[in-house]
Specification:
By secondary structure, this protein is mainly alpha-helical. It contains 2 helices and no strands. The model has no long low-confidence stretch (mean pLDDT about 95).
């Protein structure tokens, strides 16, 4: 049996999954703000289908946080 390694990480509001919540993630959220039918990479961080103030609050709480590679 072979060994497998899976690199899994999750950082709330890291829309582009680069391990950092920064201006890029804010821009993704802002470009979809007040729109429905959106997903996590488009700024719907609480998975309710709409990018709104709740999602902005989640981003603000994690702004400038980074996960180590």
């Amino acid at each position: 049996m072979a060994n497998y390694e899976n690199d899994f990480f999750f950082l709330m509001a890291d829309a582009n999954q680069d391990r950092t919540v920064d201006l890029t993630d804010f821009t993704l959220l802002a470009s979809n703000f007040n729109q429905s039918g959106r997903n996590f990479p488009q700024g719907d961080f609480n998975y309710d289908g709409t990018v709104d103030l709740t999602d902005f609050t989640l981003l603000a709480a994690n702004f400038n946080k980074t996960l180590a590679p």
